[in-house]
Amino acid sequence: MDFTCLSPxxxxxxxxxxxxxxxxxxxxxxxxxxxxxxxxxxxxxxxGREFMRQTLQDIAQEKINEIExxxxxxxxxxxxxxxxxxx
Length: 87
Fold this sequence. Notes:
By secondary structure, this protein is mainly alpha-helical. It has one domain (3-83). Helix content is 67%, strand content 7%. The chain has helices spanning 8-30, 36-70; strands at 72-74, 81-83. A two-stranded antiparallel ribbon has the order 1-2. Helix 1 (8-30) runs antiparallel to helix 2 (36-70). It is elongated and about 60 Å long. The model has no long low-confidence stretch (mean pLDDT 82).
């Protein structure tokens, strides 16, 4: 994968994924013999929801920023774009 082509939000998600994997590995490394899977599962449950929440938030914000900077929204019934009407 070419990380130079990632958007800023994608780069942030990739960084968080690496930190998430490192945290899980550290938890597994610190686990006593026979308890590795339990400790890994705990790490995934503990950090996984936060990782998903942050990822969803970042991707949604990136899309919002794209729409706001474009000031055009796609028309659902045609391929043309209509100017956004301010209320």
